[in-house]
Every structure is written in C-alpha cells, then in structure tokens.
Amino acid sequence: MSGTPATSAAPKNAAKVWTDTRYIYTEIPGKLLEDGSLIPAAVFKFPLTEGGLSKALAIHKAQIYEYAGQPMPSNVARRSMNPRIAAAQAILRKNGILKG
Fold it and tell me: What is the CA radius of gyration of the chain?
C-alpha cells in the first residue's frame, strides 16, 4: 500500500468549532477571490447554551452553500423535495399564502 498518512480525518470543508467553559467559538474560513484579494477568516462567539450551539450551527449551514460550489437550481431542489412538503407548499400556493 502506498500513500501518506492523513493529518486529520476531517474533510477539507469541515467546520472549526471549539469551546471553553463559557462560550462556543466557530470560524468561517477566509476566501481568496478571483481578483487576488482575500476575505479574511472570521471567528464568532456564542454562549455555551443550546441556543448558542444552534446559532453556531446555523452559521455553518449558511456557509456550506457559499463555499460548496454552484448552488442547486431551484427546479432540481423541488424535484428532490419530500413529497409531504411539496404537497403542503402546493396547498399554500393555491390559497395565495405562498408565492412562486
């Protein structure tokens, strides 16, 4: 077997999250733009509570869509949607509550 040992089992796009006794910290990595400029990394601090963890994870959920590549076309997303959600959305659209 040839190869080199991995320095980490985490994938390249893994979230960096750590805690101390009072806070949860989460890092959004920087990004190099096509024009050569750099968006610096940012570290966010949340209270070490259920709500703080929820907020930290929500940031990473949004971050996945920004750095994972091209966004999924809306028609592909609708085809892969849970049928129960699709049926509920159809009812809401019919009643004029949901647009689109």
Answer: 19
